[in-house]
Amino acid sequence: MSVLQEISTLLQQGRAPKVKELVSQAIEEGLSPTQILEEGLLAGMGIIGQKFRNNEVFVPEVLIAARAMNAGVEILKPYLVSEGVEPKGTVVLGTVKGDLHDIGKNLVKMMLEGKGLNVIDLGVDVPPEAFVEKAKEVNAQIICCSALLTTTMGEMKTVVEKFKEAGIRDQVKIMVGGAPVTQSFCESIGADAYTPTLQAAQM
Amino acid sequence: MPVLSFPSIQLMGITVKELIADSDLQAKGMKMISERVDSLASVSMMDLSVEAEAFGSTIKFSDDEVPTVTGALITSEEEAKNLVVPPVGTGRTSLYIDAIEKACKLITDRPVFAGVIGPFSLAGRLMDVTEAMIYCYTEPDMVHVIMEKVTGFLIEYIKAYKNIGANGVVMAEPLTGMLSPDLAATFSEPYVKKIVDAVQDDEFIVVYHNCGNNTIKMIDSILATGSAAYHFGDAISMSEMLTHIPKGTLAMGNVSPSAQFKGGTVESVKAETKRIMSECCSYDNFVISSGCDIPPTSSWENIDAFFEAVNEFYAEK
């Protein structure tokens, strides 16, 4: 088994310390950081994502795999920067104002990172303005809003309006998700996409 | 038998914050609901913050939403070992027991069920729910230490409800629904079983609630808990679930609280209720219900529509 295959396998098993060790080894062996990222880390995360879609693995397995991936990415980061490698895009993500639930948001973050996107996590209880300010700061292409409460999902509409007020609505795609959110709600507030499942968020 | 309690705030013109702080209002709300709807039982609130608060978790309260646990109380095995199990009565537990005792005196035409959290869901709230799922792999011993403690507390808490005359509890284990079947069998099933074995008898039942989307895959583990009845959420097909439930064991569900009771219309609530009933009522052990706790600000037109749909379904047969 090549070192890249080993990285992928151990990532799928959630073996973060071993992933870090093997990523370092791969760098010492002269493999390119991009190759390590794509054929080792992202490949492993891709398999986990597919298994999750097929109900072969579940949330905890996705969480530990994502942790292992992030551990490997931390080792690679300085090398990727020096190579000029950039993420495929930038996402600003958060749970809306008044809402403290974060499992869904955390999972979406991990899965989007597993697709090679740079995800800025604003956390929970995020005011609408914060989505706009961060999006401008990092030149985000995608905004992900999460809510679990029926009384907070209305904040998503405010997020959409704030982007319009800031004059950058056309520069981003706004995705909304969470238990009370529906397709018709998404359309009614002018968001671009409703993601009913983790898998939908990745697509 | 929908999980219908929080919307009583509308009938009484109060907020959720006021309801959860007052046992008289809780009992009055349950009584008002029992007078309005023809439900199989009177079911108390699914407030999944009460037990965690008793252990010392920080809770965020709001006027219109169910309270939320914030932060993590336990982040190491040492902290788990040092975790003190609170006596029953700590925090709002005494108030909730008092509310059910009052409700039992007011409601005499149907069983009265208290609402409690399940052991893994409680442990998750003490560790942070995301971290808890990771700890199952990285710190299993720590998780088991916490599981033993929360199970001990829940047994005593549920016995307190039994002692004041409740007919049973609806025990909510939603976090387990996100686990793999193997993890559920390790970290939830034996502890739920311990609780059921300690409290359930011919006069007092445990209704196991799990609205997760993996409940069909983990049904063997769920059934191994020995609960008297099972309550499932709208993430699964109720008709498919019923093929796994032994005849003679009650299974309930699963009209969506958010999509229907809160976000639907009278027409959509009726249509969905009748759809589920048409698929499931051929099973004698099926009871139509909501998929989870009905949100506090769900319209009573929609809630009434659910019961109208049930009556219409049987009238049309």
Q: Strand order of the main beta sheet of chain A, please?
A: 2-1-3-4-5
CATH class of chain B: Alpha Beta
What is the CA-based Rg of chain A, rounded? 18 Å
Summarize the helix and strand pattern of chain A as letters.
HHHHEHEHEHEHEH
- The proportion of strand residues of chain A reads 5-15%
Chain-wise SSE layout:
The complex is a heterodimer of chains A (203) and B (317).
Chain A (H helix, E strand, L loop, with lengths): L2 H10 L3 H13 L4 H21 L5 H25 L6 E6 L7 H11 L4 E4 L6 H11 L3 E5 L8 H11 L7 E5 L5 H7 L3 E2 L3 H5 L1
Parallel strand pairs in A: 1-2, 1-3, 3-4, 4-5
Helix pairs in contact in A: 1-2, 1-3, 2-4, 3-4, 4-5, 6-7
Chain B lengths: L7 H5 L3 H4 L3 H14 L5 E2 L6 H6 L2 E3 L7 E3 L6 H6 L10 H14 L5 E6 L1 H9 L1 H10 L1 H24 L4 E5 L8 H7 L1 H11 L5 E6 L8 H5 L5 E4 L5 H5 L7 E6 L1 H6 L3 H15 L5 E5 L9 H17 L1
Parallel strand pairs in B: 1-4, 4-5, 5-6, 6-7, 7-8, 8-9
Antiparallel strand pairs in B: 2-3
Helix pairs in contact in B: 3-6, 7-8, 7-9, 8-9, 9-11, 15-16
